[in-house]
Amino acid sequence: MKIFWNRIVRVLRLEKQVFEEVEADQTALPQALGLVILASFASGIATISGGLDASLFSGTLGSLIGWFVMSYIIYFVGARILPEPQTKADYGQLLRTIGFATAPGLIAVFGIIPFLYTISALVASVWMLIAIVIAVRQALDYTSTGRAIIVSVIGWIIYALLAWVFRVIVH
User: Fold this and answer.
1) Can you state the angle between helices 91-100 and 16-24, rounded to 10 degrees?
2) How far is CA 46 from the centre of its chain?
3) 151 Cβ partners below 8 Å, 6+ apart?
4) Of 7 and 53, which is predicted with more confidence?
5) What is the DSSP string of the chain?
6) Cα torsion angle, 119, 59, 135, 74, sign
7) Tell me: the pLDDT tens digits for 47-84?
8) Are the beta carbons of 149 and 133 closer than 8 angstroms?
9) Rounded Cα–Cα distance for residues 75 and 57 (Å)
10) pLDDT at 106 over 90
11) Distance from C-alpha of 36 to C-alpha of 30, rounded to nearest angstrom
């Protein structure tokens, strides 16, 4: 448990070495899963008033599905379409590193305080975006941060389009 909390602190500091560590640690997937759930709960708690409701749990399920899908899209784009010569990665590496990159989402819980809602959500989102770019760069062994940004943005656009299509079909 100490390793888990230590990794969270290091992700919050945006230490690139922690992403290398998580990438290599095949036993870190449950930790990444737990962190995605905790960050989703933090965000969900900030949006509800007066107790837990079903939307908190459906939001967590959506976050988990989103994590799996977005990680795969970024893996496919980054490792199959836009790899650098030294890129050697598998889906599990991206799943673990991107899961840990959600750590800044924990601060969204401060949004339960009404005047802090918008600022905590904004800070958490920007911080997570930066962490995801670092996670992608490290997991895909890129030498260029620019390539990691491009792959992350392409992955996000594809994910957003798929989510939109899913919402249109479901509703």
Assistant:
1) 140
2) 18
3) 74, 77, 78, 82, 136, 140
4) 7
5) -HHHHHHHHHHHTT-HHHHHHHHH-GGGHHHHHHHHHHHHHHHHHHH-SSS--HHHHHHHHHHHHHHHHHHHHHHIIIIIIS--TT----HHHHHHHHHHTTGGGGGGGGGGSGGGHHHHHHHHHHHHHHHHHHHHHHHTT-S-HHHHHHHHHHHHHHHHHHHHHHHHHH-
6) negative
7) 775 455 657 777 788 899 999 999 999 999 999 999 99
8) yes
9) 27
10) yes
11) 10
**pTM for the whole thing?**
0.92
Closest CA to 134 of 147, 145, 150, 123: 145
Q: Which amino acid makes up residue 68?
A: F
Query: Angle at CA 37, nearest 5°, toward 115 and 2?
Result: 100
Rounded-to-integer distance, Cα 140 and Cα 147, Å: 10
Q: Among 40-44, 63-67, 98-102, 140-144, which is the least confidently predicted range?
A: 40-44
Query: How many residues are given for the chain?
Result: 171
Q: Based on C-alpha coordinates, what's the Rg of the chain?
A: 16
